[in-house]
From TrEMBL:
<feature type="domain" description="SWIM-type">
    <location>
        <begin position="56"/>
        <end position="88"/>
    </location>
</feature>
<keyword id="KW-0863">Zinc-finger</keyword>
<dbReference type="Pfam" id="PF04434">
    <property type="entry name" value="SWIM"/>
</dbReference>
<dbReference type="GO" id="GO:0008270">
    <property type="term" value="F:zinc ion binding"/>
</dbReference>
<protein>
    <recommendedName>
        <fullName>SWIM-type domain-containing protein</fullName>
    </recommendedName>
</protein>
<feature type="compositionally biased region" description="Basic residues">
    <location>
        <begin position="142"/>
        <end position="152"/>
    </location>
</feature>
<dbReference type="InterPro" id="IPR006564">
    <property type="entry name" value="Znf_PMZ"/>
</dbReference>
<keyword id="KW-0479">Metal-binding</keyword>
<keyword id="KW-0862">Zinc</keyword>
<dbReference type="InterPro" id="IPR007527">
    <property type="entry name" value="Znf_SWIM"/>
</dbReference>
<feature type="region of interest" description="Disordered">
    <location>
        <begin position="124"/>
        <end position="152"/>
    </location>
</feature>
């Protein structure tokens, strides 16, 4: 665990921006699909998006889309990105805080203290613990019994 957290903290130094690089890649891939969509603005925050023969309702205020991908992942789906682009808003404002670099850094911020080896532990005068008693579990007995050979 100590190695993993240390490696994550070191890798964190390579990140640029306020969002995780994987999220930025997903957003960039989605921005290429925006030109293929037809948008109808129903309200200031609500849109109807036609894409690939299907219609989705996107609400920028509640951060929801009819495809439910935005709700499940916390990253704007392609339909939402089209609406964000039309309103000329920043997509970073619509990404869930779990994908912020600050949140990632806070996850791996606690330091773990090293532990001494088992040979250096204090010896106890108490008896060694015993395994729990064996008991036959309830249920039907197994039918896969070994066939006895002749003469057994």
């Amino acid at each position: 665990m100590m190695k993993r957290c240390c490696a994550k903290r070191e890798g964190l130094k390579l990140f640029d921006g306020s969002k995780m690089p994987s999220v930025v890649k997903m957003i960039e891939r989605g921005e290429k699909q925006v030109s293929n969509m037809r948008l109808i603005q129903a309200d200031l925050h609500e849109f109807e998006v036609d894409y690939d023969g299907d219609t989705f309702v996107v609400n920028l205020e509640t951060k929801t889309c009819g495809c439910y991908r935005w709700t499940l992942m916390g990253i704007p789906c392609w339909h939402a990105l089209a609406c964000i682009a039309q309103r000329r808003l920043n997509y970073e404002d619509f990404v869930h805080p779990a994908y912020h670099v600050k949140t990632y850094a806070a996850t791996y911020a606690p330091h773990f203290f090293p532990m001494i080896g088992e040979k250096q532990w204090d010896k106890s005068t108490l008896p060694q613990p015993l395994p729990p008693p064996f008991r036959v579990m309830p249920g039907r007995p197994s039918q896969k019994k070994r066939k006895k050979e002749f003469g057994e």
